[in-house]
Amino acid sequence: DPSYYGQMVTMTYPLIGNYGISPEDVESNRIQVAAFIVKEYQNFPSNFRSRGTLADYLIKSHILGVEDLDTRALTRHIRKSGAMRAVISTSDLNPDSLVAKARQVPSMAGSDLVQYVTTKKPYFWKYNQPDYVPADSLSNAFVWRHRGKKHSVVALDFGIKYNIIRCLENAGCEVLTVPAKTSADVIKALQPDGIFLSNGPGDPEPLTYAVDTIRHLLGSVPVFGICLGMQLLGLAMGGKTHKIKFGHRGANQPVKNMATGKVEITSQNHGFAVDLNSLKDHSSALSHINLNEDSLEGIQDDSLKAFAVQYHPEASPGPHDAAYLFTQFAKVMTHAKA
């Protein structure tokens, strides 16, 4: 998941590596974490889908893996103090020196991390992988291969997970994924039926180019956002975002759909959130809330044909309680074309 870019990830479950690595499960073109920390590593996976071990996967990508740390003690420390900057060293073993180096690590707040994970070239999705197209082909609507047969969707890539594209395709969409800095004029020239705003890493506020693009597109075609995409939509609608002390992580976050009253168990991975009170008409903007802390999990503005959620309805991994949102997006596009 590109949302993990630049972060060290620690697992609370004590034994990691049991499943091995399955190429079908990867969500981007490379490993995104800065380091992976476990209590105990299992070097002999038991899974018929496995094509290699976790250690080999990390080594091939030159990603540091650390074993035999008390990950539950580390988790308790993070739970008490919040997410923090860190450093791992095999050469400098002086604690004071390492603390000084950790303090010099740039904060996620105020940093544009999307530039490191967005695609460099536009692409369609073909045979379960990106099918790149020349950038100069984005001059008109003739770029679409299934125009009229499927919904033409432009996905702004802020760090998109592959399974999001699969879910959009399964909902009857043809998805053209474009770089994060693609302008509103270029997107409008493609005459899409809808715009998708992807997930991604870090702070949304430095992404002024994306907010400006979204603001120019709002109201012209339906817009659907996930995770960072929701935060950017919130900013484009005049709201504000903030860094939360404890990021929402894992696949068991309870979220209430305010329209239906149903509770969805969701997969989440974000450290920033939209401030509900900053939206001008927050009563109509509120669509989902987190039942653990009453934080904002979804916004919707029917007048702008725009909606977004803070969690991951595509799961991968996680529950599929919110998979209906992709069908909802398709229905909004169908209604907009009627």
Automatic annotation (TrEMBL):
Pfam families: CPSase_sm_chain, GATase. GO terms for biological process: 'de novo' pyrimidine nucleobase biosynthetic process; glutamine metabolic process. It catalyses: hydrogencarbonate + L-glutamine + 2 ATP + H2O = carbamoyl phosphate + L-glutamate + 2 ADP + phosphate + 2 H(+). InterPro entries: Anth_synth/Amidotransfase, CarbamoylP_synth_ssu, CarbamoylP_synth_ssu_N, CarbP_synth_ssu_N_sf, Class_I_gatase-like, CPSase_GATase1, GATASE. One of its GO terms (molecular function) is ATP binding. Its EC number is 6.3.5.5. PANTHER family: CARBAMOYL-PHOSPHATE SYNTHASE SMALL CHAIN (PTHR43418:SF7), MULTIFUNCTIONAL TRYPTOPHAN BIOSYNTHESIS PROTEIN-RELATED (PTHR43418). This is carbamoyl-phosphate synthase (glutamine-hydrolyzing). It comes from Desulfotignum balticum. The gene is carA.
